[in-house]
Amino acid sequence: MSNDCETAITETGWGIWHYFTVCLCGLLSFAEGNTSLIVPIVAPLIACDLRLDKYQTMMPITTHSLGMAVGAFLFGTISDVAGRKKLIPIAMTIMFCALATLSFAQAIFLIKLSVFMLGLGAAGSNIILKVYLIECLPMRKRGTCLAIIDMFWVVGYLSALGISWFIMPSVIHMLKRQFRPSSWRVLAVICGMPSLVFACTSGLLLPSPRFSLHRRRLRQALTVLQQMYAINYSKHANTYPISNLEDCVQSNDEDESNSIQSYFTKTWERIYKMYKSPYKRTTLYGTLTCVLHYPGFAWLALWNTHVLQEMERGDVLSGNGTCHVDIQDVALDFLRDCSEINEARFGMLSLISLGYVLGESLLIAGIDVIGRRPYLIFSGLTGGITSLMLIFRLHHAIRVTLSSIFLAAYAIGCTTTCVLLLENYPTALRGTAMGFMKVLPYLVVFALQLFLKTSCLLSIIIASINFMGAAFVMLSVPDLTGLPMKEQFMSPI
Fold this sequence. Notes:
By secondary structure, this protein is mainly alpha-helical. The chain is built from 19 helices and 4 strands. It is globular.
């Protein structure tokens, strides 16, 4: 089945349709990245506006992570039942509605509900986009295109950071009087607008041909492949060389029922299959790796920025507690107080986050040429070593450079891991597997946001161990660079 599916997609060529689809998926990823920092940025402003204490201020942040855990599971599992394409605008619309509601929220309950729904939509969008895109790509472009949409995400993340940095000080300077923390409402709407715009344009995407083949919709799959071929080659669709797709999919007993009972039954069956041969090892290794990568792009950059600023005030190795990591300070330090923005936090975060651009650029340049494993090894060794070097007495500029390299290595490791996992599951399990493996990492982040309080030294050592451990674990997963994706059919229980 794998070779037949790859042949059918390869015959569509590579051209305008693929460029358009990758760019559109990239813009959708950009919109998601635009919301990645909105909660930690507006949380201290909400606290000033509504006069909340630190514990109440942390609640929206932890609720956001809980929403991401729920969203990853729901959207991942539903995508294997309902398809990929139709869930993309739903996830984006949820993100916009959540931010629009947040901008008008006056009660803490409504704020928590809004950020929960924001997390639900963001996690769902992240998973569905990658599952959809990889199912439309020929094998020689899979890794590069996944790295490209992650690059779009990074650009969205950096643009949100820049917009936030621009809006907050400008309000203070423009008014020349007491700071108005209610400006966070405008910021929430601005960061949510791309989600609404690109949710509408996502209707231009074609259905996933692999999912159509999996659900035995052969006519729909052939029509999609013919359209891809016609656009790429500027030829009539009927000249597409493959007309019989019967060999691309094995018959199965799954029905098209959309009942709630059927959803739970099929989801349980898919999770069961994930932990049976031949997917058991991949599932266990993938889950462990995702946990080791648990902070995520935005939170890892926030942690790194906080550590760098703490190092300016105290020695990491002194052992006297002068350099410490408190999750409340990591999350809420965008304001010095309710009348002054923390310019240093914005500046440092923007500077070291450029490392993500470097990491994704290196992936785009060679992941489909060099392969996945060399990048994993490079990521683990580079990230682990640069992290440990931060504990020594070094010039501030050197520490900033090391932090940027550290984040570049993290971007390489995360994107490469995602590509490997997507390639090693069949279409029947791909969405469920990606969603299910993200639940535990988001729950870990949720727990850490409630209780994390440690020294800089210990947090740096843990980060280094996590980096090297994640790379070592994923080396056991097959590298399918230049090979067909797994498409082995698993019969129901």
